[in-house]
Please model this.
Amino acid sequence: MQALVTGGGGFIGSNIARALLERGDSVRVVDDFSTGREVNLEGVDVEVVRGSIEDRDTVDRAMRDVEVVFHQAALPSVKRSVDDPGRTHAVNATGTLNVLDAARAAGVRRFVYASSSSAYGDTPVLPKREDMVPSPLSPYAVSKLAGEHYCKAFTKVYGLECVALRYFNVYGPRQDPTSHYSAVIPLFATALLTGATPTVFGDGEQTRDFTYIDNVVRANLLAAEAGPQVAGEAMNIACGERVSLNELLSAIAEVVGLEDFEAVYRDPRPGDVRDSLADITKAQTLIGYVPEVRLSEGLKRTVEWFS
Ligand SMILES: NC(=O)c1ccc[n+]([C@@H]2O[C@H](COP(=O)([O-])OP(=O)(O)OC[C@H]3O[C@@H](n4cnc5c(N)ncnc54)[C@H](O)[C@@H]3O)[C@@H](O)[C@H]2O)c1
Model:
């Protein structure tokens, strides 16, 4: 099949592209490499369309003969969206609308959308279930949820089969540790591996449901193949377990082989949620998703890759 991975130069997109190639699909990537890295696609046999998903001509070119779209392109950071909400909206919401409209016009069969657990916000009830009312806390969360709503509308109005996967804190190989906006596991892992002091925003007792990349890639493949009953649905993709950032630091230190380490604690960041844990029953039922790689194994593989 001909697949299009938007944001295929990024962490999750490049891992999806590799998995598709391994099973014999043809893969095209559209990426402006604003947060992604060309090194992620080094030695990978994909066709790259360089440009922004904000540009309709670029997206139309990328969409030619495509059967399934894996829409990963976005500006993925809460902090970045707090710094520049307009830019985040332009790429994540308007850009998604652009990709959806091009997919509809090209007759794409299935559209798998990278949504986010941030849609839930600080709901007091855990685990988070898809039937809860979303309560996005940050401009990033709003922009990702807007994309999800566009997906639903495109299924209803045009019959484009969209599936939204609400990822919970994804981590693993090829995640960028170098940016000011990097996620917590690459930052903690590289700090502990290089003898630097990791920074924790808040008291470290906030919790997350960390999800290893291979589970997310598998969920994407399952969502692409599932029957038409998944069209218009959104589902959590997570591990179904939560740990605090303090526990996470200790677990990474153990994998690295450090007996002792120190962390600095700074003020919590605006827009960050306090606790996160997913109910993954819906994805299990609808697409047969099972998180095969659990946290301890995922951290081992991640630290190995970063070192
Ligand atoms: N990593 C996570 O924990 C997580 C959690 C929830 C949702 N998500 C979503 O998953 C997707 C992938 O995230 P990631 O962690 O791989 O981030 P990433 O930054 O590594 O990947 C995003 C990719 O999109 C590209 N991109 C950005 N703006 C673009 C534009 N205007 N046109 C074309 N390409 C553009 C970037 O260059 C990059 O390659 C995003 O949609 C993100 O919102 C990620």
Notes: Residues 66 and 260 are 51 Å apart (CA to CA). Residues 7, 9-13, 30-36, 52-54, 72-76, 91, 95, 114, 116, 144, 167, 169-170, 176, 183 surround nicotinamide-adenine-dinucleotide (CB under 6 Å). The first strand starts at residue 2 and ends at 6. The mean pLDDT is 96.
